[in-house]
## 1
Amino acid sequence: MESFFTRYRNILVLLAILLAQIVGLAVQVRRTGDGRSTLAPQDGPGVRLIRLWAQDLVAPPEWVIHSAKLGTIGLWQNYLDLRHVREQNQDLQKTVDRLHLEQASLLEDARQGQRLQTLLGFQQKYIYTTLPAQAIGSSGSDQSRVFYLDKGSNDGLKPDMAVITADGIVGKVRDVFPRTAQVLMINDQTSGAGVILETTRTRGILRGNAIGRLQIVGIMADQRIQPGEKVFTAGGDLIFPRGLPVGVVDKVVRDPDSDSFIDVVVKPYAHLDRLDEVLVITSIEPRFSPEMQQDLATSEELKGAEAEAIKQQQKASQIMSERLPGLTDPKAPTANPAAAQPGQAQGQQATPAVPAQPQAPRLMPALHPDRYSPKAAQPTSESKPESRPEPKPELKPGQQTAPHAARPALTKPAVTKPAKASPEQTEKRRNP
Amino acid sequence: MLGADFRHDREIRRYPILVYALIPLAALVLQAWLPRVLGPYALFDLPLVITVYFALGRRSPIQGTIMGVVMGIFEDALSHHAIGVNGIAKTMVGFIAASVGVRIDVENHTIRLILNFLLSLLSSAIYVFTYRVLLGMDLEWRWFAELFRAIGNSLIAMVLFPLLDRLEIRD
């Protein structure tokens, strides 16, 4: 017996180790209702312990390497940034001032949006509480697109929290350790996120494929989906809040399994293969930070000053309009006297209402009237031989009189027949 | 027989204890960190290369098996997959590398290159077999990527093995 174990010691050790691992795998895998195998959603205590050991062993050197890399890059960039720093500082200060105002305005809109959402009973919120974190390592395998953060449960992270960048979504927290957390990226094969296309409002499930490309799968063939269309989170997966940017449609390909379905290939906004700093959404409860509150106050002050400036401008323009001559006669009666005197109008409610006739604006008298001015020509009934107006030049064929000039009465053409003007008068009229 | 045993003992490589601890750890850390820097060009498997190196150098199937299972399980633990898939693959690789190392001259660079290439492909094949057949789970697979990974492992081994040879304890 001893010789048997000695002789086959190597192969026996191999078989024992393989058997132990196969049993361990069998413990981790479970059967679903449709007969397929899948991993247990939560790791068992033994598996979690192994992952914790691996993390505790690998994370500190990774953190050191990452810090050294950041330190070196920072040192070099600081050196480069010292050049032209004054000009850049001035430009940035202007940008900060402008963004400060814009942010305050956006916060105002966000607050209004929250009020409206509350009124409508929606659950989505505009403002989230996020925690910045550094990506310090990965799984090292392209079959498992996960990476590790330098924050863990000690910092308040929990599983299924959304991980984003300023560009777009990145993934979700899958497992949390005391000082680190494992993030499953959205381009992993086992990942999934509910998304919606901006224009067509088509909803689908976003997941990765073997080469780490993002695809929206299981969409009915739709000719309207075109490359360039933006993709946002739909908010139905209870992980990613609604409306976060995901990417743009890169191309549309046929589903290899079914002709009636298509796969929409999405180019992510976030640089999934070059992640350094990310944000973990730790809460979707609306919350205004003290800085935001201060910005809001600044915004309201600015709004008050702006309103005062507009009022001053209106006052100045009113004064100018009073001083300058206008076309309308301020002494002319108003179109609807009842509207001008509401008290009287209320007292005359018993009288039958007469529909107000639209009245043409009364023209003001000209300061230097001439023969083209209104009422310059006397009516024919008032014309007398001794008070005959200045004779008008004879009109040539095709020449028109001024529109406001009094037309000669057809019934008495002899009365208004103009006398022939002298050459001096004609020249004077041509060059007044 | 005595002559063969003497040659076998003489050709077993021995390293300081720190090398056994730090080199695999460095391989695991770099395998976890470099893909973040290199992105899709990180076509290599450093834990596999280190497993093959120590298995070939120690020429002990049991030690090769243990090295393989440790490296594989740590790789699995860093991923979100089941723990043991990489473990089984690298266990087999360690065992086969050590068994081959007893019989052939592993000092030759060409043999090292070919061994690394073949063992990388074998590791990938065992991985897919375990995932799809033993576990019955869906897994998309690209053999071209595995081919490139095997080539990458071979090239890295050509550079890395002579460097690691310098750490050997010599009489």
## 2
Amino acid sequence: MGGTVRIFIDDRPVEVPPGTLVVDAAKRAGVDIPVFCYHPKLEPAGMCRMCLVEVGTIQVDPHTRQPLRDVEGRPVVQWMPRLQTACTTRVAEGMVVRTNTLQVQEAQRAILEFLLTSHPLDCPICDKGGECPLQNLTVRYGPAESRFDYADKMRQEKRVPLGDLIILDRERCILCGRCIRFQEEIADDPVLGFSDRGRGMEIITFSDPPFASYFSGNTTDICPVGALTTTDFRFRARPWELTPIPSLCAHCPVGCNITLEVRPSARKGGWDILRVMPRQHEAVNEIWICDKGRFVHHFATAEDRLRQPLVRRDGALAPASWEEALERVAQALRQAGAGAAGIIGDRLPNEDLYLFRRLFEEVLGSPWVTMDPPVFGGEAVARYGVGVGTDFGRMGRGSLIVVMAGDLEEEAPIWFLRVRGAVRRGARLIVAGGRPQKAERYADPVLRYRYGTEALVLLGALRALLEQDRIPPAVRDRLDGLEVLRARVATYPWEALEVRTGLPRAAMEALAEAVAEAENVVFVFGREGVVDGEAFVGMAADLLAITGHVGRPHNGLLPLWPHGNTQGALDLVGVRPLPAEVPVLYVVGADPAGDGRPMPRAGFRVVQELFLTETARMADVVLPAQSWAEREGTFTSAERRVQRFYKALPALGEARGDWEIFVDLALRLGAGWRYFSPEAVMDEIARQVPRYRGMDYAALARTEPQWPPVGTSRELYFGGTARPNEGGLGRVWPTEAEAPGARWPLFWKDPEIPPEDALMVVPVRRLYAQGTLIERTPHLRNQMVAPTVGMHPETARRLGIAAGQPAVLRANGRALTLRAQVDLSVPPGVLRVPAQGAPRAEVVEALQIEIEAGVRDGAVLR
Amino acid sequence: MGRYILLRHREIPDLHRLEVYVRHGGYEAWRKALTAMTPEQVIEEVKAAGLRGRGGAGFPTGLKWSFVPKDVFPKYVVVNADESEPGTFKDRELMEGNPHQVIEGALLAAYAIRAERVYIYVRGEYRSVARRLEAALAEAYPAGFIGRDVLGSGYSVEVAVHLGAGAYICGEETALLESLEGKIGHPRVRPPFPATYGLYGKPTVVNNVETLANVPPIIARGAAWYRTMGTEKSPGPKIFCLSGRVRRPGNYEAELGKITFRDLIFGEEYGQGLLGEGRSVKAILPAGASAPMLPASALDTPLDYESVQAAGSMLGSASVIVLDDTVDIVWAAYKMVRFFQHESCGKCTPCREGTYWLRRVYERLVAGRGRPKDPELLESIARQMAGKNLCPLGDFATSPVLSSLRHFRQEYEAYLRAAAEVAAPAGGR
């Protein structure tokens, strides 16, 4: 296409790309055309008829190609006989649009009067009241009163649960179908639909369980009336009572921008988060969030939050003053000195991560500090992560997205939406994994390999490229280690690769071909089933590097990190093995005991937490920390975007910010720390940590206008309740490969591959898996995934386990008490366990199974 | 040659049987097209004949076919047999009595646009009609008229019958396509039109049953012959469905523009006058409930597209319903409004809400509880609906309201006077 066309809207000239909808062109020209069913993120439906306008074409003299003019010199316009819907009409050269003539105004009044004939007008008790497009447009365009006899109004059900999270009020519904189209076009969970017809038409859900979708909450944002409400927010507050605070979601790698809407609450005896809304960031989450991000906030104000320090007295944890607790900790740390060890969770903000590491390395002189959970691939991401400016929202034809060893929708729901959007615009998706997932609907092709052979699959692709010598010369010049790679890859014959991966050679060649020919390649990698993470990510990096898909926007590695600040934890703490036994162990925001991860034995344990987790129960001192809602800070998403979040609630009880506790301890240990706020810490990070150069709070708070413009109550166009971004768009730190003239080193390591007939334990991450935080949200209770050990029927037979049987599995020194679930989607020879059941995928060395009847030892393994 | 071009089964017994149809020249046009004509020539012939769509809109059929892109596959022909307009029963008789002519027409349309699949979308209530069509197909397939490599031409085409689920809206071509795809019958936004984006998003021609029944004679005998019938702008024969207060209701085949309403209602070979003695025509519904009603003064209007339009209505599907002087016009308008309210698909606001509101006002009016401003209110609601809908149904629904108010306002006023008399004593107390 290219170029623009020039049209006139209310006599204003507007230049827009061909194919633009009149309603969008008008918005760009600053003209509001009222809409209900239209939504800039959805395909136009043309059904509410609110956006009717006059459309005409300037008549052109066929000979001179000049506009025909009337006696007064004005261009002659041929008007269409009927009003046209601006949401379905696309611009064309010479088009003339009028949005405010008497005829248009009459139509607008007519549509509003019609809509209100079946509307209950229960605004005083409606959650949407105050931010309702129907209210707003009626005030601006509607008739002052209706001629409809209220007694003739059709009565409909006021409370129709569409599931555990969303309730439909059929009387308020104006049947615009935005929710249906969102579920079909964006979420691809087409579980809503219209049923019946005429005035009896209604929205229904036809899935079982009803409204089965991770994205259902978004329908309440884009509902232009109060028909769809969440069970969380319904009847809890009027929107004008809420204070919106910009924040971030920390529960997956995406880094969704959100708004915490807070208000004093008698129920909570203080302030409360009434609802969580998306905050627009077109390069991160657009205007969407997943239901976990929307509803998980209840942990922040949960009854059982720790509110004061606890110390162990006579074998039991008992309340204590901060002074006593901190003095005990300081004393223990002083004695332990360089022997002390620290574990810090990857949901803590950057400022706290940075100070924790300094506390150990500089104040105590101890190298024993690590992040939790441990992840692999950090170095590869620093070198070959996605380039600055990468945006799924701008990817389409010519782009390839590869998803490997992870479940896109379960682990990064909003990336799933955005990748699907890219596919709709023409991007290609390849999904490689050990089991089926939703994203495979659009995959071309799906590569189903044996868990644990990820590196070999990529090695096969590398082999194909090297054999065909498909390395662009400009790329070859920048590569280091190409000959080593070539020589080592050649030692893996195709037959062996085929047998071990379970993939035909052609599949690996197809992957190579797709990567080589694509203009852009983003390689999304997870951890599911991965045994040798270093080799896997290294091969992925090599694949991108030798095809030139690194060091620029829309290209590079993108990790499916477990949480919202895993990247920050890698940047500021890192992964280090700890000794098996230490004098003092200090665990912050992590629950290795509860999550089944190893933890050093320690004579004295300090746990800093929100809740009395399993790890905290074992502690000698428990320090109550503030949740992210009670303080400010920054998180770094897996796209390496450093973003700010703001304080939304006062501290709960005596809880303190993690960074404050570290400062207090450092002072007690004699360090001359002077930090008065997280901002001061970030100032130092921006000076000291090269990746974070220039990222002070002011820089991170900068915003720029986003398209499409979204809803404030004055925003008549969009009408949704997503918040405009007033908290900052953040900044992405550049990868090493992006530096001018940077060399691109290649990686090599002989991958460690599980034996062919091995039994493997594979932890699988699910969005609604059990966890300390999510369990505090009652609304999600029914959707939580029951912890089971999933296995193929063949495996179950081999192990002598029946479906539904509770069993204790003892393997590799850990015991898992789970119900067996027989599931054809699990490959044979694999025990699928919840992600918190095992630290990583591994080969089962010795398995002991206890079934109710007794113990069966050594059920065949190899 | 008999007097019928379309309703030929009236002269030829058992014409629905393939052997009889073939004996009387059936499938000769099909053979001629496949062996001696290119698809383009078929389109040109139909264009030259001036055939206009018989479903109601009267759009030139050949032109419609010529809009289909040549290089996109697959393509589809869909036969609109969702005959649902009140008082319309011509397609039913054609499909029952002369099914092969409809099928042959559909095959010619498929060949003309190079479609390989034809769907006949039959109104849900027409189960027996669908069986008749299926029986005809079961004969035509083994005879080599349908299927792979038809008559050795190398061209392959499949025909399937699909029953609708009972919604008037599915007679609208895009709602029909949605329904055929298995979705709820909601009209689509146009453009794009079915010719480029039709069934399953592929180029599609949707034609009415009667339209397609005109195609075999055009191909067999040529456009020039066809144009000897009817008028310049409305050539050819047309089936008129006559019902209402007439002595002999039924389907009548006549040339377009050659007879008037009066001929149709009173002619000896047509309706033979009104039921009962001493009755007179009060109003005519020229196209079921959809087109504005005309007063008796329009009786001498010739029955072609242009003339009926000039008289203030539409020929539409030519289903003429006659209302005599015993008919209560307000009641009749209420019946029609109720019909549209029941059949509105609900997709667009003005139609969904407007038909409901109209119905509520009519309800109180006919119940003797009308309010003095109700005629103005009805007119205003109808005008608010008109011209603002995605498909024609919302505009159709205003026809009985606006036309009855225009021609028979005094009947509304009679209702209001009666209502006022009932209310007066209460008001005086």
